[in-house]
UniProtKB/TrEMBL annotation:
Domain Tyrosinase copper-binding: from-to ranges: 62-79, 281-292
Name assigned to this protein: Common central domain of tyrosinase
Family designation: Belongs to the tyrosinase family.
Cofactor: Cu(2+)
The entry's keywords: Copper, Metal-binding
Keyword set includes Metal-binding: yes
MF terms (GO), sorted A to Z: metal ion binding; oxidoreductase activity
Domain of life assignment: Bacteria
Length: 358
C-alpha cells in the first residue's frame, strides 16, 4: 500500500544518512518565502521551530490527547519539506529515521557520532562542536574579540563568568553574527526565540528544570556529578523500559508516554532539546519519530488484544482537547481520525504520504 518505510537510524545506509542530513541542512540554510512571525533566522527550518514554539506557548499540542496526532502531522509536514529539497530530488523518497532510546542510551554511542548528530555540548560556550550541525570551538575566533576569548579561557568557559560578563559575551556574539559572511552565518542557524544561544546546545543528563540556560544552573558540584554519571546516561530513569505499552486506554497511555518517556528524553538531553525551541536540534525528529512509532506499535498491540478499544480519546471534543474528528491548528487540515492509520495518511495538498515503521 505504501512504499514509505521509516527505519531505525542504525539501519540507514551511508547514502540514506547523507541524503537525510543534507536535506535537513538544506532546510536550515534556505530562506523561507513567507517566514513565520517568530522565525528570527528566516529559514525554512526556522518556520518549523517557530511553529513548535508557538504550539508550546498555547494550544493543545502538549499536555492533551492532541499531543500524539499533532506531532504526527508535524513530522509529516517536515518529511514533505525534506522531500522538496534538492538533496532529496534524485532517488527514493526521504523518510524520517527514528532513534530507539531504549536501546541506544549511552552518551558516546549513536546517534551522538560525527556521522549522525554530533556529540554533547562542550567548549568555551558549551556548544555542540562535532558533526554536520556542530560549530567548532575555534570558530569563536570569528565572533569574539581576542580580549573576550582570553577572558573565556581564563574562566574555563562561559559558566565560569559572573552573570554580567556572560550577558556581555552574548551581546558581543549577537552583534558580530549579523556581520558574518553567509557561509559562516549558516553554521550558526539556531532560532533564538527562547534563549540567546546562536549555536546548537546540548547538556546531557542534567537532572534539573530544563528551561533555563545551563550556565545559570550548574554548580561545580553538579558538573562533577554529571561527569561521573555520564556513563549511566538514561539508565536510572526508566528509559530502557517501555511499560506504557501495557496501558489499555489511550487516556492512560498518552500522558505516561508524553511525560514519563518523551519528556524525560527532552530533559535528559538538555540544551535546546530542553525547551520549546527543541526542533532546533535535529535529534528532535529522530526522537519524535520513535515516540510516533510507539503510538503505532501500541495501537497494533491493543487492537489485537481488544478489538473494540479506541485508538484515540476523547471521541467528542472537550474544551481543552480536540475530538477524534476535529481538525486542529495550526494546519486545520486533518483530525486524529485522518492520522490514525499511518499507512493511509493523505495530505490535502501532497496526496499519499503514508508510511509504516520497521
Ligand atoms: Cu512538541
Amino acid at each position: 500500500m505504501t512504499g514509505n518505510i521509516r527505519k531505525n537510524h542504525t539501519a540507514f545506509t551511508d547514502r540514506e544518512r547523507e541524503r537525510f542530513l543534507n536535506a535537513v541542512f538544506e532546510l536550515q540554510t534556505t530562506r523561507s518565502s513567507r517566514p513565520h512571525p517568530n522565525n528570527v533566522g528566516g529559514t525554512v527550518y526556522g518556520d518549523f521551530v517557530a511553529m513548535h514554539i508557538e504550539a508550546t506557548w498555547s494550544g493543545p499540542a502538549h499536555g492533551t490527547s492532541n499531543f500524539l496526532p499533532w506531532h504526527r502531522q508535524f513530522l509529516v509536514e517536515f518529511e514533505i519539506a525534506l522531500n522538496q529539497t534538492s538533496a532529496a530530488q534524485r532517488g527514493p523518497r526521504v523518510c524520517l529515521p527514528y532513534w530507539d532510546w531504549t536501546v541506544d542510551r549511552q552518551p558516546d554511542r549513536t546517534p551522538w557520532t560525527d556521522e549522525w548528530l554530533g556529540d554533547d555540548g562542550t567548549g568555551l560556550l558549551g556548544q555542540v562542536q562535532r558533526g554536520r550541525f556542530g560549530v567548532p570551538d575555534n570558530d569563536l575566533e570569528h565572533f569574539l574579540s581576542p580580549q573576550t576569548m582570553a577572558r573565556l579561557r581564563a574562566a574555563d568557559g562561559i559558566s565560569g563568568l559572573p552573570p554580567e560578563e556572560m550577558a556581555a559575551v552574548w551581546q558581543e556574539l549577537d552583534r558580530r553574527l549579523a556581520d558574518l559572511p553567509g557561509e559562516l552565518r549558516n553554521r550558526w542557524f539556531v532560532i533564538r526565540v527562547v534563549d540567546n544561544r546562536p549555536f546548537l546546545s546540548r547538556f546531557f543528563d542534567l537532572p534539573l528544570a530544563p528551561f533555563l540556560p545551563f550556565w545559570e544552573r550548574e554548580t561545580e558540584e553538579q558538573k562533577q556529578r554529571r561527569r561521573e554519571r555520564e556513563g549511566e546516561f538514561f539508565r536510572d530513569r526508566g528509559m530502557g523500559v517501555l511499560d506504557v505499552m501495557d496501558e489499555t486506554a489511550y487516556d492512560k497511555f498518552r500522558p505516561r508516554l508524553e511525560l514519563d518517556q518523551h519528556g524525560t528524553v527532552h530533559a535528559e538531553l538538555g540544551g535546546h532539546m530542553g525547551g520549546s525551541g527543541s526542533p532546533n536540534d535535529p535529534v528532535f525528529w529522530l526522537h519524535h519519530c520513535f515516540v510516533d512509532k510507539i503510538w503505532a506499535d501500541w495501537q497494533a498491540k491493543q487492537a489485537a488484544r481488544h478489538p473494540v478499544a479506541a485508538p484515540y480519546l476523547p471521541l467528542q471534543g472537550t474544551e481543552t482537547e480536540p475530538g477524534y474528528h476535529q481538525r486542529f491548528a495550526p494546519w486545520n487540515t486533518m483530525s486524529a481520525a485522518d492520522l490514525i492509520d499511518t499507512a493511509r495518511i493523505r495530505h490535502p495538498q501532497h496526496g499519499r504520504v503514508g508510511y509504516v515503521y520497521r
